[in-house]
Write a structure and sequence with these properties.
By secondary structure, the chain is mainly α. The two termini are 39 Å apart.
Amino acid sequence: MMSRAARRTTRSSAQRAENSLFGKPFDGGKRMDHGGPQQQQQQHPMEQQQPYHPQHPAMMRLYEVQKEVASLGPQVCTFSGLQNDRDYKRLERELTRLLLEVDQVDTEGKPELQGARKRAAQEVEGLLRYLEENATHPSRLAIEELSNEARQLVDERVVAPQRAGGVAEINDELVDALQELVLRLTQVKTEGRVPLRKARYRALTRLCAVQDVIEGRTQQQTLSLPLSGDTHEAVHCINQVMVKVSVARSQLVALLMGLSGRDSCAHLSRILTEMQVELDALDVSGNAAIRNYRKQVVEEINGLLKHLDLEGEGDDTRRYDLAQNNSIREIEAVRAHVSHLREGVLRHCVMGDLSFRPKAELQSLLTHLDQVDTAKNPCIREARRRAVVEVQAIITFLDLREALARRQPGPAEHPSHRAVWLVLGSLSDLQAQVLGFDGKRADKSYMMLEELLTKQLLALDAVDPQGDETTKMARKQAVKFAQNILNYLDMKTDEWEY
């Protein structure tokens, strides 16, 4: 087998796109339409090499390799698994075979044939390298680690107890733990790579579905007695279905988290559909209470069924490419407006002009953001949250500036209270710098701002209220304000993406 070092041959920067055997050199999947065919026109090698051996067996063999690479390329560029996955091993095996075949092409020492063979090898090597880079990328491993953490949590608290005949331990602690994992998944950086976006999307959709199943479970209803004999029979049948639904809920959670080796989404879907048929066959027309009970159980079944299409989610959709999402576009439009307002506020602030106060406009943007449909997508929710923080940062800046301008301390003001206001004045100046900061955490200006804000927190900590309640309250609010500025600076530089 070809050695790994041979597969990783560095591509020469002197090779031009128009000289590539396949039209353009491999670009890491950027020309791939999320699993669709390459958008560029594939050129026949004989057309590119028309002056040289158009019918030469070597060129014809390289053309055959080109066709195989064209079919494998989209699969490589959307593969979102790990190295131990079956599809990874298959793709690696096929690409390695093609590389060996390219190496075995006899160029008869002719420079033009040698160049074509070299370009073909580079194209295959590029795909192999891209496949390996994504499967071993730190972000991909982080996604898998978080998925395993969620899997273990759900297994211990939900799946394992019900398999043992017990009761699942579902409480606020479990719900909060799942929400924390969702938040950590949204923070994983994908660097714009389609496979990483796809892996993150698949992990998030499954974990959010488990959240929905756990939080939305319907408690079995108890109807008041006595009821007629016919009605009792209907209630008994509905109760039996409800028990089956409870079991199906556990099976669904196990399926979504990859904890079920035998069941499949199709099998569970058939079971749930049979339950619906069984409920539809019941005659409950004479009792509104029983009819409502059946309706609730049917809604519970429908709630489970809607999650069963996740088995292929992410394979044949573009939902992980949130740059094309309408809600994201709406949020980005608001952020662009906020950026324009922020520049105006800072410009007037430098001139000492406090008349520019677009607070009403900023409040309307908050209302707009509140109405954005997130479709329960945690990444869209996080994008909206960040936009809200950006708006609120400007509003709090304007409020503090106005409060500082109105402030008229009297001779009887407590010295500690005056000290807090002095810190607030410094924080206002620092917040203006933070609002205008557009760098990275490695920048000296970032480290300087972080250090200055930390010093202001230490200055507040050194303020002794001396029992003055007003000073205590003011210091507490100033500390929170300083921490919010630090958090905002941290958010601006964490390089988060959709």
